[in-house]
Amino acid sequence: MLQRGILSGLRRGLSSSQAAAFSTSGVSQSLFSDVQVAPKDPILGITEAFLADQNSEKMNLGVGAYRDDDCKPVVLNVVREAESRIAGSNFMEYLPIGGMKAFSDLSVKLAFGEDALPIQEGRVAAVQSLSGTGSCRLMAEFMHRYLPQAKIWIPKPTWSNHHNIWKDAQVQQELYRYYKPESRGLDQEGLLEDLSKGSPGDVVLLHACAHNPTGVDPTPQQWKEISKLMKEKQLFPFFDMAYQGFASGDCTRDAQAIRVFLEDGHLMGCSQSYAKNMGLYGQRIGCFSIITDSADEAKAVESQMKAIARPMYSNPPLHGALLVKEILGNEALKQQWYEEVRGMAERIISMRALLRQHLEDLKNPLPWKHVTEQIGMFCFSGISPEQVDRLAQDYSIYMTRNGRISMAGVTTKNVSRLAEALHKVTTD
């Protein structure tokens, strides 16, 4: 206690002798007395409230994890098959700092295309990462070190953790308009106007598909307009691709934005995650890549990616990389995965159609076509925070206060109850 009191005194600018006196004066404080309780994560808070609810018909529409029609977690059959194939076949040694190269090579082909020119020319720097969050964090730190004048342009709204990631890396953030509440769709005019204010070398965060939280994606033509403007303004695209294949059921379609930018000759960065599309949430498996100007540049950039990763976590985990490598590296398993990820996407698409149908059958006065026009795991419902609160209090239906519904939590058994509750809170 005396030592902590002295440290507390020294923190207050006292001399050693004054600090010692301070420590015995009866006002000594703990070393951690100034540490405040951090605010709860909004999504984890929803889960806590859900778990405490005793209603047998309660619904958790906040968590961003896939559920089957019985609202149960799913392990893909292809993942179980891959597990059986790799079982007992590998040691448990550390991976290199950059992770498993065979995994990264397959991963960038999935993102950019098997025959992508930057891959053929060796211009892609890539490392295995700790899922999508880890990829974004590596990019943020890379910006802090090697693009110190660059700002990160983040869509409004976006996944809330994006702001934390770039804030922790001390990168200046700017927002660009993305969602238009009046139409429940894309604010393309506002987006282009805001990005036109960017400076050469600034980085623009783009959701490759299934925008979180809105479920609103640009059309192919709108992506071409965005790419053209960014090329003219010399802005660097960084794609966060957490849902490839999971959005539409087609991996190629879900990567169309990236392919548009490749056709326009952009250098770019990409964050990939296999949490959603392979159900490998807890394996924390992802890939961080940057397309550079030359093979020599790619080697230098990749070496610095590894230098950033080394003090953060030393090296990434082994098991998830083995699973993804086994699936993407075997044609039969890859085709099986395509079928299973399509099945997950189609279940969510069908729940969108059912929810809209039920709301329209109830003669709800609000427009609900956006439910089926949006894509991916999340539906940006358009209801108010107060209406979200009523859903929780009166109906035991939990979601984030911005009205984001995780469609993975909607099933054939609960969709009518959800529609009725939405109808009540939007008409009473």
Structure description:
The chain is of the alpha/beta class. It has 2 domains: 42-75 and 344-427, Alpha-Beta Complex (Aspartate Aminotransferase, domain 1); 95-329, 3-Layer(aba) Sandwich (Aspartate Aminotransferase, domain 2), CATH 3.40.640.10. Helices cover 47% and strands 12% of the residues. The chain has helices spanning 2-11, 16-23, 42-52, 77-86, 101-112, 117-120, 131-146, 160-168, 188-195, 220-233, 251-254, 256-263, 295-313, 319-328, 331-361, 370-373, 385-395, 415-427; strands at residues 59-60, 124-129, 152-156, 173-177, 179-180, 185-186, 203-207, 236-241, 268-273, 286-291, 378-380, 397-398, 404-406. The strands form 4 sheets. The chain has a 7-stranded mixed beta sheet, sandwiched between helices. The protein has a two-stranded parallel ribbon with strand order 1-12. Strand 7 (203-207), helix 10 (220-233) and strand 8 (236-241) form a beta-alpha-beta unit. Helix 10 packs across helix 12. The radius of gyration is 24 Å and the shape is globular. 45% of the residues are buried. Mean pLDDT is 93; it is low at 1-12 and 19-26. Residues 57-422 form the Aminotransferase class I/classII large domain.
